[in-house]
Amino acid sequence: MEVYFDNAATTQVAPEVVRLMDQVMTEDYGNPSSLHAKGAIASKYVNDARAIIAKTLKCDPKEILFTSGGTESNNMALIGGALANERRGKHIISTRIEHASVYNPLLYLEKQGFEITFLPVDRNGRVDLEELKNALRPDTILVSVMMVNNEIGAVEPIEEIGTIVKKYNHEILIHIDAIQAYGKLKISVNKAKIDLLSVSGHKIHGPKGIGFLYIRDKVKVHPLVYGGGQQRDLRSGTENVPGIAGLAKAAQIMYDNYNETHSRMLDVKNRFVEKVTELDGVLSNSGEAPHIASISFQGITRAETLLHALEASGVYCSAGSACSSNHPAISGTLKAIGLDDEYLQATLRFSFSIYSTPEEVDYAVQVIAEELPRLRGFVKR
């Protein structure tokens, strides 16, 4: 049996998405900037996609900018947003549990003379709101917080964060990395006072290489890519029409059936956490997100050892963020939440999708139960 529980890294592309993208690539393959009929058809796919996505966020379609994915969206929001607003100040606030695609652009900005404050989180991975209040300064221009942590599934109080920041100074930009949140949770950019929001298609059963950045109307962001002036001069280059159409279709699948898809993922996750923590020496660090479970195993010296043992039985999971897999290190998120030292290198992430099943959960837990004694050095009986 094959069980894929690494959906926070990437998801299976939905069949409906594949069919639509095939049509765009083989029949409606025009350049959306072309003035002939083929170009008009391609342009309609792009405009329709903006409208579909805008509906999920309750925003204006013109506020959706298509990118190559979450990393580019985060880079544009942070670097583009900081450079466009540096005359007002050079202080940025973020957290200690951000994804590398936020953390590394912030380090770049630090080298350019910006000052970055990284807020602590509590044992559950949630931002300390009092620390946020204390960190705000007259020269603060940007606050960047991920909505759902990619390792433990902590859900940040983005509406409270928005209220605090905008009450202090309504000109401070709020950026939300929603790459693990979009499609899994409902998001209202107006209610949460969000100015910039990043999304990636391959986290929601869409294709890789496509994403978007929500940019609130009148918010200034410097472009990172220059050329022919597509997308209102904010991101030049011929639009990835098949990817854009596929992303919008995936968004429809997740949000048109939101109650069903959300409940399905949450039920599977809860079943897994409940069953796996019944095993001796197993604990959960999992947050409220419906699709991510962070599980620590006592007596395991390296998470990769258990990961590969599970892989041998067809169970696929992760030892942390897939985007950091080429740079193995102790997780900054697990350290930030104060996880005991014995678990820092003995934690795996299991993440679920709308296609995950209870039967897969039962099989995965069975395999874990069989492998743990052997890896802990016990003799099976």
Question: Key features?
Answer:
12 strands; Aspartate Aminotransferase, domain 1; alpha/beta; single chain; Aspartate Aminotransferase, domain 2; 381 residues; 40% helix; 3-stranded antiparallel β-sheet; 12 helices; 2 domains
What is the secondary structure topology, with strand pairs?
Elements: E1 3-4, H1 15-26, H2 37-57, E2 64-67, H3 70-85, E3 91-95, H4 100-111, E4 115-119, H5 129-135, E5 140-146, H6 158-168, E6 173-177, E7 196-200, E8 211-215, H7 241-256, H8 258-276, E9 282-284, E10 292-297, H9 303-312, E11 315-316, H10 332-336, H11 341-344, E12 347-351, H12 358-375
Parallel strand pairs: 1-11, 3-4, 3-5, 5-6, 6-7
Antiparallel strand pairs: 2-8, 7-8, 9-10, 10-12
Walk me through what this model shows.
With 381 residues, this protein is an alpha/beta fold. The two termini are 24 Å apart. It has helices at residues 15-26, 37-57, 70-85, 100-111, 129-135, 158-168, 241-256, 258-276, 303-312, 332-336, 341-344, 358-375; strands at 3-4, 64-67, 91-95, 115-119, 140-146, 173-177, 196-200, 211-215, 282-284, 292-297, 315-316, 347-351. The longest helix is centred in the first third of the chain and has 21 residues, at 37-57. Helix 8 (258-276) packs parallel to helix 12. Helices cover 40% and strands 14% of the residues. It folds into two domains: 3-11 and 258-375, Aspartate Aminotransferase, domain 1, CATH 3.90.1150; 15-256, 3-Layer(aba) Sandwich (Aspartate Aminotransferase, domain 2), CATH 3.40.640. A hairpin with a 7-residue loop joins strand 9 (282-284) and strand 10 (292-297). The chain is built from twelve helices and twelve strands. The strands form three sheets. The protein has a seven-stranded mixed sheet, sandwiched between helices.
